[in-house]
Amino acid sequence: MPDRSDLVIRGGRVVDATGERQADVLVRDGVVAEVGEHSSVGRPDGARVLDAGGCIVAPGLVDLHAHLREPGDEEAETIETGARAAALGGFTAVVAMPNTEPPLDDAAVVASVLGAGRATACEVVSAGCITKGRGGEELAPMGELHALGVRIFTDDGACVTAGGVMRRALEYAHSLPGAVVAQHAEDPSLAAGGHMHEGSWSSRLGIPGRPAAAESAIVGRDILLAELTGTRVHFLHLSTADAVELVRDAKRRGAPVTAEAAPHHFTLTDAECRGFDPVFKVHPPLPTETDVAAIKAGLADGTIDAIATDHAPHVPEAKERPFEEAPPGMLGLETALALTLSELVEPGALSLRDALARLSWQPAAIAGLDAHGGPISEGRPANLCVIDPSVRWEVDPIRLASRSRNTPYAGRKLTGRVRHTVLGGEPVVVDGTAQR
Ligand code: DOR
Prior knowledge:
Blueprint: E1 7-16, E2 19-28, E3 31-36, H1 38-41, E4 48-51, E5 56-59, E6 61-66, H2 79-88, E7 91-96, H3 107-116, E8 123-126, H4 142-147, E9 152-154, H5 163-173, E10 180-183, H6 188-191, E11 196-197, H7 200-205, E12 209-210, H8 213-229, E13 233-235, H9 241-252, E14 257-261, H10 264-267, H11 289-301, E15 306-307, H12 316-319, H13 336-345, H14 352-367, E16 384-394, E17 413-423, E18 426-430, E19 433-434
Parallel strand pairs: 1-4, 1-5, 6-7, 7-8, 9-10, 10-13, 11-12, 13-14, 14-15
Antiparallel strand pairs: 1-2, 2-3, 5-16, 16-17, 17-18, 18-19
This protein binds (4S)-2,6-dioxohexahydropyrimidine-4-carboxylic acid.
């Protein structure tokens, strides 16, 4: 008797790190059992069929950077709602950022996040703080957190400003297999009091700015510290041309660094702030057109390894405050893939496979998530997403699964959408509808 959980993903184009081919995918007991021609895969008795005609069958996407707000700000998002939004966006794994309340600098809090993420629509991986309370002074118990499975250490939302503290964190992380120290590169003494990118738009609007040098000063320093200690540094949400150039140069020298960019940094500019709408407020801030072009070029030539959402839900009351008082951050999980397809792949800046590399197997490798990112072959865990690359849709904040509504893309027409997501062999999104 065939297993009741048999699943056939029928008629799609399978795209993974090894290549692409027209094939059906048979999933059994949570793993890929067969990839082949329609006739060889067939339809075992009782198998459920997911139609993938005209679609791309890809390894599930992996987000290195999502704020799921639990514990502490469950009005904005919970692990359950964030994981659902992630699955609808094609993600099978997300790294939950530790700027929660209390922060994820303690084994018990990390264990509770991992517990809450267990039965959700997406694998939730906890990041851990670099320093206690994200205060930038005393190291968090990185070894204890690592023992629980934490691989990404970051104080995101805050920069580890003191070079000596960053050096100690890197030296300590060196002894923890697979550990990555991820930096929010914005020197607070340069960014202090700024609410948008410092440039001609900030002058015109009279909004105090954050200079690009706030980012590049830290990126430059941390490249040197990565080389000094031999420990990998990952740069979160790279947003400026200077920082991209520093990382490009560092990689040329073989420095152990990786970087990510968020969709809003390759699709929006500081000009969006002209209406004083805090939905466009984010840290690091929306940059200039030159920076956007540099981020795209960095994604195209591999300087930037990953596209990460920096999904940052905020309740409406918070985002209704005046620009200078509103918190920074914007939603990202449900629009990242479509923005990548519409703004990078469709115009020819990135091939489809390179786009999937930045969204799936490269971030999976950075986070050490071996069960995600493919390849789609026999015996591999069935963490997959099925993408309809041609469907046109309009972003409607009301229809998002996130608990919050702060998307800067309301009304924007995008091409490409997730049709199905499969997590550990279970369909968690079917025909665009969440099943968990
Ligand atoms: O805009 C941001 N919002 N940048 C961050 O680094 C933190 C995030 C948040 O938590 O809201």
